[in-house]
Structure to design on (346 residues):
């Protein structure tokens, strides 16, 4: 299903996927929070939950990549992820920048980013 | 759904990028800290091209929706009959080391997509404003918002397909009313090396902002000159 097709049927499908929930605490998950599955999908689990657990079974996957893969809006994926987190199926690695009190990243981080970029 | 199709139509790359999604080049298992840089600019300026030229994965695309209630904060007249507003955005990533991965987001600069900006800017290292000299006016709104968000940024002029002769960087700086301390560079967003240099310019700029003398000196000089 393309994003465009999804657009035409929203919000009905989105309503179903999330059980009617539409808002979450925006700070709970960042676009780049990394998600790792802690166990295999359980029988009877919602298909989107199953897909998420399969995608991040071996390596961490960012929220935004899950959103792209599931072809669901970021906010919908966040709701699904919070379900999985609250039931212990996933753990998340928040970006350290999410806790930053200022806009400016610390010097050590910036130096490491420079090293990484220069070696591209 | 004009808002949705808008930004990708003119930019090569993301069409069909959905297939494969997260599967192509997985993150390292040890990845634990993701960083963000936002590339913002007008319609068709080359944001996705820049993301794609340095990303270790093909640029991916996804979307965010804003319900009518939320949209109303901005300008309800523009969305009077829409139930939701959808914005599509592209992204790629660069694994920097064992633990750090840098995500690059291409963000549409149009005003009606304001609602995605907070999410993209939250925790971002900084931003690249990508400029097409034929449509400098497309940069005014993004520049204004970046200043409002107090988000550090550099400006990169994408020279790959502009008019000939092109305006100089000095002329671009004047036209955009850029402060002297905002780095302004030329680039060709199609080239990995050039896009990489733009990102390095941004990160070096961020390191100079840690030095209060470097940060405040230009402003002090300007004030003294007035």
């Amino acid at each position: 299903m393309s994003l465009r097709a999804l657009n035409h049927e929203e919000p009905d499908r989105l309503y179903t996927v999330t059980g009617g929930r539409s808002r979450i605490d925006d700070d709970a998950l960042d676009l780049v929070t990394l998600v790792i599955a802690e166990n295999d999908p359980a029988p009877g689990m919602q298909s989107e939950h199953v897909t998420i657990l399969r995608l991040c079974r071996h390596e961490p996957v960012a929220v935004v990549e899950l959103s792209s893969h599931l072809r669901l809006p970021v906010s919908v994926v966040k709701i699904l992820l919070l379900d999985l987190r609250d039931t212990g199926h996933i753990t998340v690695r928040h970006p350290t920048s999410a806790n930053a009190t200022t806009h400016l990243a610390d010097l050590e981080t910036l130096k490491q980013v420079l090293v990484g970029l220069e070696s591209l | 759904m004009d808002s949705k199709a808008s930004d990708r139509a003119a930019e090569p790359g993301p069409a069909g990028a959905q297939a494969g999604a997260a599967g192509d080049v997985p993150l390292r298992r040890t990845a634990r800290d993701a960083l963000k840089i936002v590339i913002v600019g007008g319609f068709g300026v080359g944001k996705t091209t820049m993301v794609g030229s340095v990303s270790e994965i093909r640029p991916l695309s996804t979307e965010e929706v804003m319900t009518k209630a939320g949209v109303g904060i901005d300008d309800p007249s523009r969305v009077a009959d829409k139930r939701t507003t959808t914005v599509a955005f592209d992204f790629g990533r660069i694994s920097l080391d064992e633990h750090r991965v840098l995500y690059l987001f291409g963000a549409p600069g149009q005003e009606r997509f304001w609602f995605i900006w907070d999410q993209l800017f939250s925790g971002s290292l900084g931003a690249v404003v990508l400029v097409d000299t034929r449509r400098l006016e497309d940069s005014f709104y993004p520049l204004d918002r970046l200043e409002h968000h107090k988000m550090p940024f550099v400006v990169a002029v994408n020279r790959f397909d502009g008019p000939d002769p092109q305006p100089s960087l000095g002329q671009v700086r004047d036209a955009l009313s850029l402060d002297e301390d905002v780095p302004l560079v030329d680039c060709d967003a199609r080239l990995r090396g050039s896009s990489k240099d733009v990102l390095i310019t941004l990160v070096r700029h961020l390191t100079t902002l840690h030095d209060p003398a470097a940060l405040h000196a230009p402003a002090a000089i300007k004030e003294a000159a007035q």
